[in-house]
Structure formats: structure tokens, C-alpha cells
Amino acid sequence: MTMRLFLFAYTVIATSSAFASDTAEKTGPAAKSVEAIAMEVKPSVVKVLQVGRNGLDGLGTGFVVSKDGLIATNLHVIGEARRLEVEMSDGTKHEVTEISATDAHWDLAILRVASTDLKPLTLADSDTVKQGQPVVAMGNPEGLGFSIVDGVVSEFPDIVNEVPMIRLAMPIERGNSGGPLLDRQGRVLGLLTMKSAVTDNLGFAMPVNELKRLIEKPNPVPMARWLTIGVLNPKIWQPALGARWTQHSGVIQSSTLGSGFGGRTLCLSKTLPPEGIHEIAVSVKLDDDSGAAGLAFCAQDEDHYYGFYPSNGKLRFTRFEGPDVYSWTVLSEFASEAYRPGQWNHLRVRVEPDKITAWVNAKRVLVHEDSTLRGGSAGLCRFRAPGAEYRGFRIGADLAEKPVPEALAGVIEKALSEFAAKPDTRQATLGKLLDDPAVARRVMTERRRELERQTAALKDLEKDLHRRSITRDLLTELAKPDDKIDLLRASLLLARHDNAEVDVTQYLQQFSRMVDELKSDPEIAKGTAAAVKRLNHYLFEEGGFHGSRHDYESKANSYISELLDDREGLPITLSVLYLELASRLHIKQVYGVPLPGRFMVGYKDGPEGELTLLDVFNRGKKLTVEQAAMQLTDRDELDAEYLKPASKRSIILRMLRNLMSSTMDQESAAKETLPYLDLVVAVEPESSVERLTRAQMNQRLGDKASARVDVQWLIEHFPESGPDEMRVQLDRWMQSLREE
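^ that's the sequence the OP posted. Answer follows.
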């Protein structure tokens, strides 16, 4: 009996132990208290400090992801061209030596510091995040170091700006960005990224699995190179009184306080205004209308100049004659309907010997007699804390928009009138119905809807006009002999075709600065092999250029402007940058190789040298032809046509077809794809496949007249040896289009 009881008890204990073990495996490690998590993770959390001329410029959070010095944070925490430090919880500081990886799409960055004994946090699997899951976060909100807060997951995934994020029921403040979001076992689920614009008790975190992918595919940039990214060209601009002046996509940004009284800062152009009567103009947008930013002119030095700028929602004209407010004279301050709060505003100033005239958005708002300061420099000015953006700065004798010639104006007005005309007489009908309010309102509603339709149609017409003008410019470029075509400019025109804000000139200047950095490099002069090695190091080791890590099919990856901004793109956009640098630096025997599935760069070290391929998507990895063949086709050789140098026209067409393929799966595929089909046919009129596709899409959109044009072309150019069935189908298609 005793033995039975013993066996029974043993069985119960064993079963209970097995059950407990099985339960532990299913539930994972036990949850820890917030206090325990704080003590455990604090040594691995850091302050990320932006260090400027006058000390601290900005602060965020990061955390250790590897023992040998890698720190994760948000990209927006580190900005661009900023010296960075990280401060540990014990007060130890480390200077950042390298930006190991960045990703603009996911707002992520990995920094490297010179330390090999850091304590990394454990990275969890963010795909397992559940709604209602308790979480903990540590950061530096509003500069309060190493603060901890707990909450729960409100939603996952929550799509914000097309990015899946973890929505959190917990307060997120400035300084929290880049900090770890932890589960109750102390493992990282994500990186705190932003606070909700709706309430203080909601925030968002980037899933940590995206950070894992970034760790696996770094694009390191040494700090010496990082500090030059986005910096204004010193040959063109001279900043004064501190603050941070950078340039991105042709837009100049000014952030942080200047060292002058009231946070005053200047950035003066090194192009001097012409003698005598002259004008200065710029478009400016304030981060917040409580700030002040605009034009500086007649600048004798950093303390003596005129300023014309929006300030606190009004317009202000000031003469500065010293370093502080006691030596400034506000000559005029006023409100104006011409000023558009929160938007881009175009400022223009005309300087004459005895007076100064100012315009805002083409409306004259000021005429002031003052002759105290003349000559000197012109540029940009800003005051107080909110930042500002500037674009289109110009100096000249007369910058006013020229009136449209009367004959041309008549042609345009007639064309627009015909475009907007209606067959019925709505105005007459409206007049007859005004005696009856109910009917009048109905009629007014109908008229509003019609005007909305006309507005939408005018927007489409404006967009089409822009695209036609870009098509004309692109065709002009591609009409040149191949060796005279500016491939970079042609590629930028493709980007501008989709986005009228792309400033081609500014990007060309940015590219020219890259050429200037390399043209005197001794390795470039040694010959092709040495020059290619230097170019690889410059782009992929110093510059951080890399292949797209996410959403490979995204249209953004096909824009050379996006590549120059974010240093991330497709094989063909990276190849265009590489080829154009090689061309401008006179590196011989380097050309584009149109391999199936992946465009590459090829080079020969001498006319009789063997072809070496560079996979620029993978940081310039060298491949033999056989290796590329196996990688792309599972064969050990490639057809000869794939190894011939790609013409610049064919490169543009390949980029165009990439853009076109990115729209095919969209619901609005026909409308989105048609502009690319139009451009392909314009560049390559004999492209029967695109003509056939365009005819089908135009028919689907109800534009039968356009469809008939392409079908007629296909019939007229149908090959004599083509199958009879296809010819019959084309004839039937044309007949149906005529009948419809």
C-alpha cells in the first residue's frame, strides 16, 4: 500500500513537472516587473547627442545592438551633416565614428562608436506583437535622461505614411525617439519613433524586425564623409552667426538657433548683386508661423543689412545696424492678404538708389524710401527657434514675371475657354431660378459640382502639359549622338516627369560636387583598374550608396533624384550614377551591361582586357561573366547581346519600363501607366508592344480615338510574315472601335 501511494505521488509530481515544463515552453520566460526591466536595460540605453558649434543641438535616444559598438536609433534623430556623441547611463561619452547603416523609408539608423565592451539588448520577433500586449519603453523625453514608462500595444500593424508601425497606448515625447520598446521580458520589440498628433497618450514604434534587416545589410559612411552630406556648397554660400544650414533636393533648410541676438542667423550668397538697380527673390516656408525668415540684402557684414521677411504671421522690413535689438530699426510691419500662412511664399525685393520695393506672391506690398545701406551681399536670414526652408534664390536686374505676350495670351485663353465650355447656358438658367431659393440652391450645387469637374480637368491638363514639356526636353537630349547625351540629366528628367518639384539644376550641381571631390584624386589618374577601385570605395564605403532593402518595386527606387537624396536605389539607377561619374572623370573602358534581370557595370583594364562585372546593387561586388550567368540564369554563359555596351537611349528606356511595371498591379493601372507608355512610344516610335498596350488601356478608359490611332499603326506596320489570325484580330478590333 505504501509503495502504491509512493508510485501515485511520484506520478502526480512527474506529471505536474512535465505540465509546468510544457507550459513554460509555451508561455516563454516569466514577465518581469517594470523596476527590474529598468535596472536591466538602463546600461544598454544611450542618449544620442547632436553636437554643434555652440554645444548641444539636439537629443534623442538609442540602444546597444552589438558588443563591438553598434547603436540603433531613428534616422531623424541624427539628421545629416551633424557631429554625434552617445552618452551612456553612467555618464561615459563616446564619439560616433561611423554611420553604419541608414534607411530613410523605415526612419532607422545604426551608429558605431569605438568600444568593444558594450551590453547589447536582446532583439525579439516583432511579428509576434499582439494588441493589448503590455510593453515598457525607456528614453530621454524632453531631455529627462533614462526615463521609463509602461503601457500596452494599442494596434499592430497600424499603417502610417505607408509604413506598418506599432501603435502604443503610452506617452511619447521629444527625446524618446530611437529608444527601445520592450516586452515584459526585457526584449526589444521596436524603436520609439513618433508621438500621436491627436493625443499625448498615443505613440508609434518601428518594428524591430526592420532593424534586423538593416543590421544584416549595412551601408557604412565614415563620419568625415557624413559631415559633408547636405552641406551647402562653400563656393556659393557663406553661412554666418552659427545655426545649421543644409541643402536637400534643391531646398535649403535652416535649423537650430543662430548665435546672434534672438537666435539670428544669416546665409549670404557669394554671387554679388549687379551694380545699380537690382532685385533679390526667394520662396520661403516657415516650420511654424511664430518664426521669422526671409531675405537679407545690402549686407555690409553680418550685423549691417536690410531684412524683409514674414514674422509672426505679418510681414516685417527691418534695417540692422548692429549686433542687438537696440541697433535695429523696424521700418515697417504689417499684415497682408498676399501672405499665405503655412505655405510657400515668394518674396521679391527691388533696390533702387532712393527706395526699396517689396512683393509677396507677385503682389506689391511695400514701397519705402530709405538710402542708408547700399551695395554689399544678399542672401537668407532667419530668427528665433522654428526652422525654415528656402528655394529658388535668385539675384538679377529684373526678376519680375514677364507679362504674357498679348498674342500668346489670346491663344491660351481661347484654348482654355474651349476646354471649359459647356453646351448649355447655365448662367441664364441660374438667373431664372433665383426667385425660388430651394431651386436656386439645387442649381448652385449642380454648378459647384461642374466647377469641381472643370478644376479636376484643368489639373489633369496642367499635369499633361508638364509631362509633354518634359518629353520634349528628353527627346531633345536623346537626339544627340550617344557620346554627347547627358545620361544623368536625362535620368533626372524622368524623375521630374513624375514630380514637377524635382530641381534638375540643383541635382546636377550636387553631382558636380561629387566629380570635383574625385577629379584630382591620384588613384583616378592611374588607369581603369585603380580608378574603379577608388570609385567603389568612394560610393559604397564613403558615400553609403546601396541597393534597395525594401519594396524593390517602388517607383522611388527608379528616380535618380531619390538615389542622390537617400543613397538607395535599383541596379540601374546606381549604375547610371556610377557610369556618369566614370565618364566625367574620363575613366576609360567602363560601360553599362544590360544583363537579364539585373543591370550591371562592366570594365576592361585595357582594350584587350577581360570583362569584369560590377554588381553595384551589392556595393560594387566583382563578378566574372560566368559567375553572373550562374547567378542570373543558372547557366554558365550569357548571350553575346547581353554583354554589349548599353546605349544611353536603351538605359533610359529600361528605366522607363521599370517605372511602368511598378504601376501595372495598381487598381488605377491604366491611368497611371499611360504617361509611361506615351513616353516610351515618343522615345521609341517603333515599339509595337507598348503601342498595343496603350491601345488596350485607352479603350478601357473610353478614349477610343486614341486607341484607333495605335491600332491603325499596328495594322500598317504589321509584318508580312506575321500570322494571319493576328492580322484578322487587329482588323476586327479596328472595326469595333469605329462602330463604338
